Amino acid sequence: MDFLGDWLYLIIGVAVVGVLAVVGLLLPNRRGRVEPPAVSVDVITGDRVDEPPIIEPEAPPVPERPEGRESRLIRLRQRLSSSQGTLGRGLLALLSRDRLDEDTWEDIEDTLLTADIGVTPTQELVERLRTRLRVEGNEAGTPRDVLREELLALVDPSMDRRLAVTGTDGRPGVVLVVGVNGAGKTTTVGKIARILVAEDRSVVLGAADTFRAAAVEQLATWGERVGVDVVRGPEGSDPASVAFEAVKEGVDTGADTVLVDTAGRLQNKAGLMDELGKVKRVIEKQAPVTEVLLVLDATTGQNGMIQARVFSEVVDVSGIVLTKLDGSAKGGIVVAVQRELGVPVKLVGLGEGADDLAPFDPEAFVDALLG
Length: 371
Hints:
Blueprint: H1 2-26, E1 39-41, E2 48-50, H2 69-95, H3 102-114, H4 119-136, H5 143-155, E3 173-178, H6 185-198, E4 203-207, H7 213-226, E5 229-231, H8 239-253, E6 257-261, H9 269-283, E7 289-297, H10 302-314, E8 319-323, H11 333-341, E9 345-349, E10 357-359, H12 362-369
Parallel strand pairs: 3-6, 3-7, 4-5, 4-6, 7-8, 8-9
Antiparallel strand pairs: 1-2, 9-10
């Protein structure tokens, strides 16, 4: 009897273990289990085929929020003070001498010419300083006050330096940006787009410098960073057609402003005139060009002046952008180029940063010259 009882207990134990094993296979582990990789079966061969993992789409990049006008003006003063202060300090040291003899005035004139102010503006400024300090004497004020007033008059604060970026009759403002390659033209277009976006304007960019693939890619990157559309064409395509499509998109989408980057080739004046003239004519079939900005490298000195003359003869320049002004001690080019073209410097580039393009402020500029 005991022998049968032992066998009975053994059979029951084996049965219980078997049931528990089956339940463990059928029910998920309480801690969670790792799902086997998804597989599918090839309908022809019957082989198991591993399915590729599901990749979630990347979220679109969040557009950057550019800096506003005030922070740009603060940077303008800081950068110009460090790069242009040498000129002002040199002039003040000369004007503060006990005796202003002819040698001193020649030194003053040389200092101004070295800063690329130009011959005629330099002669005018020296004559004004001599008259005021000699005739008016102490009544004119301190040498620093007199120099500030005369430099400010030379820079001409009365010029209208507003960017014409607004169109009429519901059409966008169209800004044509011109200049030779290497002056920072494409970068300037991107930076202007940032300024406009910071002012809550809707912008379309036209990559009409189709002869340089790098320029098109560069502009596309700028557009992506601030979340604006960039109209582009195949490499080597007709710049005028790209400009036309950019303005068309601006009209169709109700954009506030269209910025068009143009080719900067300067092999000969006739070719440049034909190309830019065609771009402008094609654009104006849809909307008037409200602003033509000429981009000049402030470090090139007289070469920049030659470029300015050529472009002013080819197209009606309405404003000047001086790039790399922080890298040049020759800030007098502001005066020289305004005198040459009769149009104002509207923007200045002060570094490599995305927001290092600022509205040109005559008073901030002169104060920076004087340290």
